């Protein structure tokens, strides 16, 4: 039977039976492929639309205005023609995209950010907010609050799906170091270079990713266990949820942090594309090893007795210095 990315309705999560049913669906989806789509999530469409509109306005700024918010040492901001989530193959051409991102810790004083971990930890960089559009920062902070609340709810349901108490993972997110990003994929006026994609294949470092994507042309694909690339449906009003490397590790390999990519549009389709992922990341002091109650069936030989922050620092250093 052909594998598809499941669509899960959260609208009945206020009842005990509904929560158990959703939790079971999460467990199946995260075990089978690590990706699913949620509807009935409760995030106001009006907020989603405002976030999308101000994000589109950001990417429409002039080159000079974008240069003012370009990422630099010690600061996040705008990355052009490449992304923080690079393809794993350094020999392929750069991704056909721009990326802007902020961290929930990025507005703290430098001394407080330094306490999170070493200089390789992405959450340590300071945010570099644009001054235009004027409403951008306020809308993005409002959206971050909504995504944080939704992600915490998803983690409760995930814990239930793993056979744990709903609040079992709460301590692991007590001082979460999440981030919000936006990807702008260029209109493809000219044919891409051989092997060049809008976003190369990668997995996420996060515990959980919640992504909003355009409804029209799609392009997001996830790699199934068979190696086949499956399209992720662009359902109006939905979010795409996927398990990141941290959550997969916590489950001892029961759940998958799947490779995914964004392919080029079909020939003749020149539209740009915007996606807005929220990376719900654990407390840097949280343990990285699998949850004791779940065991460890992971094939990877990951280091033991390190924290999430230490593991992410190692991964970031490996990516940047590769």
From TrEMBL:
Keywords (A to Z) from UniProt: Antibiotic biosynthesis, Dioxygenase, Iron, Metal-binding, Oxidoreductase
Highest rank taxon of the organism: Bacteria
Any one Gene Ontology molecular-function term assigned to this protein's record: dioxygenase activity
InterPro entries for the chain: DIOX_N (IPR026992), IPNS-like_FE2OG_OXY (IPR044861), IPNS-like_sf (IPR027443), Iron_ascorbate_oxido_reductase (IPR050231), Oxoglu/Fe-dep_dioxygenase_dom (IPR005123)
Positions of the Fe2OG dioxygenase domain: 175-282
Gene Ontology BP, a term: antibiotic biosynthetic process
Entry annotated with the keyword Oxidoreductase: yes
Pathway annotation: Antibiotic biosynthesis
Keyword Ligase: no
Family the entry assigns: Belongs to the iron/ascorbate-dependent oxidoreductase family.
Protein name: Isopenicillin N synthase-like dioxygenase
Lineage: Bacteria, Bacillati, Actinomycetota, Actinomycetes, Mycobacteriales
């Amino acid at each position: 039977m052909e594998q598809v990315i499941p669509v899960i309705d959260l609208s009945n999560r206020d009842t005990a039976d509904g929560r158990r049913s959703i939790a079971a669906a999460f467990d199946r989806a995260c075990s089978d492929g690590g990706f699913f789509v949620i509807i009935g999530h409760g995030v106001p469409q009006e907020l989603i639309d405002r976030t999308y509109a101000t994000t589109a306005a950001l990417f429409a700024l002039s080159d000079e205005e974008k240069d003012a918010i370009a990422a630099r040492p010690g600061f996040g901001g705008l990355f052009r023609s490449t992304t923080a989530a690079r393809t794993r193959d350094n020999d392929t051409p750069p991704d056909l995209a721009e990326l802007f991102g902020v961290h929930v810790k990025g507005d703290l004083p430098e001394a407080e950010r330094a306490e999170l971990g070493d200089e390789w930890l992405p959450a340590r960089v300071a945010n570099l907010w644009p001054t235009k559009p004027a409403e951008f920062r306020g809308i993005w902070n409002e959206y971050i609050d909504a995504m944080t609340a939704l992600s915490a709810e998803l983690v409760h349901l995930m814990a239930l799906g793993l056979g744990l108490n709903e609040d079992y993972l709460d301590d692991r997110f007590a001082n979460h170091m999440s981030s919000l990003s936006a990807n702008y994929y260029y209109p493809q006026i000219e044919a891409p270079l051989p092997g060049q994609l809008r976003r190369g294949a990668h997995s996420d470092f996060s515990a959980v990713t919640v992504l909003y994507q355009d409804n029209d042309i799609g392009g997001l694909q996830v790699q199934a266990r068979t190696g086949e690339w499956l399209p992720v449906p662009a359902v109006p009003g939905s979010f795409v949820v996927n398990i990141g490397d941290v959550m997969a590790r916590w489950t001892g390999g029961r759940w998958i942090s799947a490779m995914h990519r964004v392919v080029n549009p079909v020939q003749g389709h020149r539209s740009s594309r915007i996606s807005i992922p929220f990376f719900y990341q654990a407390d840097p002091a949280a343990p990285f090893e699998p949850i004791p109650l779940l065991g460890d069936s992971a094939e990877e030989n990951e280091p033991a007795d390190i924290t999430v922050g230490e593991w992410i620092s190692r991964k970031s250093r490996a990516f940047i210095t590769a």
